[in-house]
Write a sequence for this structure.
């Protein structure tokens, strides 16, 4: 799950804000998606076509702290900012270096999506 995602309305999009990405590993319980199942410690973020950055700002919040900004959705979140991001430009985002735990073993994953702040 990502913010922003797809064509995002201008009134809800601020190019100076943080972007975020979360992983849903276990659909049976929100809290089964914490740091015991999702690891962003080696994550990298690439944004193209006009930006190619590696984790300009990536903060993983303590999933055990219910008041942490990272628990507003899922109890895992990768956040970053991208100075120079502009309205009206479509960006492809690639998140690599994410590890998820399924069946007792850690597995590497990468994710991609696009968004455009209208």
């Amino acid at each position: 799950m990502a913010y922003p995602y797809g064509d995002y309305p201008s009134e809800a999009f601020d190019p100076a804000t943080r972007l975020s990405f979360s992983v849903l590993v276990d659909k049976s319980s929100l809290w089964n998606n914490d740091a015991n199942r999702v690891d962003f410690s080696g994550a990298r973020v690439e944004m193209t076509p006009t930006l190619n950055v590696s984790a300009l700002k990536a903060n993983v919040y303590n999933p055990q702290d219910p008041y942490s900004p990272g628990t507003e959705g899922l109890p895992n979140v990768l956040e970053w900012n991208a100075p120079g991001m502009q309205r009206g430009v479509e960006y492809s985002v690639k998140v690599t270096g994410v590890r998820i735990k399924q069946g007792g073993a850690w597995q590497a994953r990468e994710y991609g999506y696009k968004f455009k702040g209208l």
